[in-house]
């Protein structure tokens, strides 16, 4: 039976595309991610079109026909073209047959039929085509039962998975990414083949791997993807530091928690709170320094002293290695890793104004992000403990708001600056000026003086006397 999706795709743009194809003797199909996303009623950012014949040639004709406000980019090396109009992007490619050699990701490409083109696609759910030519407008061509797999939420390859993954090992990452993004199951055979072919990942560039990692990070329940990376043993190959977090060690009856499992719980909780990629990375890396700092102490049990400092250093290395951006995102993630225990530590003791002001000073504008991370970090199974933490934590949050309103510490600017200090005492720039500034800052954070100019200036005069410095 031929299934028709005529009404689903009956738009002016697709009619025009089909008509242009008819006039110029091309077979023309919607394909790949775009068709998958229509079926899933998911927003798709780009439209994938395949024509039998010269795709670039067809793209040129179509762009002309679409007229004003349309731009065309041709990617000669790939034999593909992109048409942009308003906020729609159309990717056009000629149907192709691909054959791979072992050492390279780049296949030998020949002109092919629609069938050849569907065979080279990575998964059955990504190989569906819908015809745009007028006589068959809306007809579904689904040689691998991709529609059924979409309904059953299954990811599997159209051909032998060993061939699909060995040809282009990036597809292993894509399989896990789709499973995580869509909440689909990878079939046992496909998953086993990923495990078998895992070492082939070495021929893929870091950038492409990280692209997929970021898509896993941004999926609704990111732990799904990371557990699969672990199960298939891809994880130690692409992200050894995270893999190191796995496992529980026991001395006597005393075990520490599995930091990998804990981390993924924190990441999932963060994913419920925020779509921000970097806050999610901060959750993933907050305890990354634990394996390197783990020690057994007869009195304390398992300890991870300074794991935040070590983690902060490791974060920079990991960002460099994975080719993640080294500017603002790295700064934020490092700061979160470094400070992630502070609000918790604070809420374990008596919550003093001075400690809260210091936290505000150190976190600055990132205080809200830090508090979100800390809330996610409370994952104990002991409900009483969780409640006690949460109560104290709420107190810290409340105090943060009160003190911020009163003292404006978040974007702390010293009320008396270095220049005023130098002018007051006739000093040249020297370490003494710095010391005086620090003493004023500490007095404000400790609540000895308010964060205002006149009281700060008076305080300065007083400490100057103690140091034997005279006013000019
Ligand atoms: P997304 O756009 O969410 O990243 P997608 O599946 O649309 O996912 P694209 O990179 O846009 O991915 O690719 C479009 C289509 O091209 C895919 O649906 C698939 O049919 C095919 N494709 C992309 N990458 C590969 C690959 N590495 N191997 C085989 N086919 C691929
Ligand atoms: Mg796409």
Describe the protein in words.
There is one protein chain. With 472 residues, the chain is of the alpha+beta class. Among the domains are: 6-152, Beta Polymerase, domain 2 (2-Layer Sandwich); 418-466, no CATH class. Helices cover 54% and strands 12% of the residues. It has helices spanning 6-9, 12-24, 33-39, 55-66, 114-119, 146-152, 161-167, 170-182, 188-197, 206-217, 223-231, 235-238, 240-243, 259-273, 277-285, 290-293, 307-321, 328-339, 342-348, 353-363, 367-377, 383-407, 418-425, 431-445, 453-466; strands spanning 27-31, 46-52, 70-75, 80-85, 88-94, 96-99, 108-111, 129-131, 140-141, 154-155, 185-186, 250-251, 254-255, 295-297, 301-303. The strands form 5 sheets. It has a 7-stranded mixed beta sheet. Strands 6-7 form a two-stranded antiparallel ribbon. The chain is elongated. Adenosine-5'-triphosphate binds at residues 32-33, 46, 48, 121-122, 126, 168, 170-171.
Task: Summarize the entry for a quick read.
This protein is of the alpha+beta class and 472 residues long. It is built from 25 helices and 15 strands. A seven-stranded mixed beta sheet has the order 3-4-5-2-1-8-9.
Through-space gap between termini: 97 Å
Assign the CATH architecture of the domain at 6-152.
2-Layer Sandwich
Strand order of the biggest β-sheet: 3-4-5-2-1-8-9
Q: What's the shape?
A: elongated
> How much beta, percentage-wise?
5-15%
CATH topology of the domain at 6-152: Beta Polymerase, domain 2
What is the number of beta strands? 15
Low-confidence spans? none
Q: What ligands can be seen in this structure?
A: adenosine-5'-triphosphate, magnesium ion
- Give Rg in angstroms: 30 Å
Mean pLDDT, to the nearest integer, reads 92
The main sheet comes to: 7 strands, mixed
Instruction: Name the helicity range.
Output: 40-55%
The CATH class label of the domain at 6-152 is: Alpha Beta
Tally the helices.
Answer: 25
CATH superfamily of the domain at 6-152: Beta Polymerase, domain 2
Class based on secondary structure composition and strand pairing: alpha+beta
């Amino acid at each position: 039976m031929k299934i028709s999706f005529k009404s689903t795709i009956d738009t002016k743009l697709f009619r025009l595309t089909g008509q242009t194809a008819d006039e110029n003797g091309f077979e023309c199909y919607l394909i790949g991610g775009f068709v998958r996303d229509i079926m899933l009623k998911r927003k798709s950012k780009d439209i994938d079109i395949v024509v039998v014949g010269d795709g670039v040639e067809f793209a040129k004709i179509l762009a002309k026909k679409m007229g004003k406000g349309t731009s065309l980019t041709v990617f000669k090396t790939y034999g593909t073209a992109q048409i942009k109009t308003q906020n729609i992007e159309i990717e056009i490619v000629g149907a192709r047959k691909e054959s791979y050699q072992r050492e390279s990701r780049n296949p030998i490409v020949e002109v092919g039929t629609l069938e050849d083109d569907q065979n080279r696609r990575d998964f059955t759910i990504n190989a569906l085509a819908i015809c745009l030519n007028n006589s068959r407008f809306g007809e579904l061509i689904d040689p691998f039962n991709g529609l059924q797999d979409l309904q059953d939420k299954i990811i599997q390859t159209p051909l032998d998975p060993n061939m699909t993954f060995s040809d282009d090992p990036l597809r292993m990452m894509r399989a896990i990414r789709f499973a995580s993004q869509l909440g689909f199951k990878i079939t046992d055979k496909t998953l086993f083949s990923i495990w078998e072919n895992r070492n082939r990942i070495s021929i893929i560039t870091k950038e492409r791997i990280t692209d997929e990692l970021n898509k896993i990070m941004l999926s609704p329940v990111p732990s799904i993807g990371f557990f699969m990376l672990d199960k298939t043993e891809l994880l130690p190959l692409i992200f050894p530091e995270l893999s190191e977090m796995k496992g529980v060690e026991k001395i006597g009856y005393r075990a520490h928690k599995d930091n990998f499992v804990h981390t993924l719980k924190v990441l999932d909780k963060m994913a419920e709170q925020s779509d921000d990629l970097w806050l999610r990375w901060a959750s993933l890396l907050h305890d990354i320094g634990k394996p390197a700092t783990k020690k057994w102490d007869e009195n304390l049990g398992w300890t991870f002293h300074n794991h935040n400092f070590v983690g902060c250093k490791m974060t920079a290395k990991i960002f460099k290695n994975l080719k993640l951006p080294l500017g603002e995102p790295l700064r934020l993630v490092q700061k979160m890793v470094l400070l992630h225990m502070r609000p918790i530590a604070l809420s374990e003791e008596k919550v003093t104004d001075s400690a809260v002001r210091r936290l505000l000073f150190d976190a600055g504008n990132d205080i809200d992000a830090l508090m979100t991370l800390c809330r996610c970090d409370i994952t104990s199974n002991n409900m009483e403990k969780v409640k006690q933490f949460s109560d104290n934590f709420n107190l810290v949050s409340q105090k943060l708001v009160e003190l911020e309103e009163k003292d404006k510490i978040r974007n702390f600017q010293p009320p008396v600056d270095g220049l005023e200090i130098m002018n007051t005492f006739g000093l040249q720039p020297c370490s003494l000026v710095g010391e005086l500034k620090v003493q004023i800052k500490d007095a404000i954070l400790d609540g000895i003086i308010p964060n205002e100019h006149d009281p700060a200036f008076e305080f300065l005069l007083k400490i100057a006397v103690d140091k034997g410095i005279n006013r000019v």
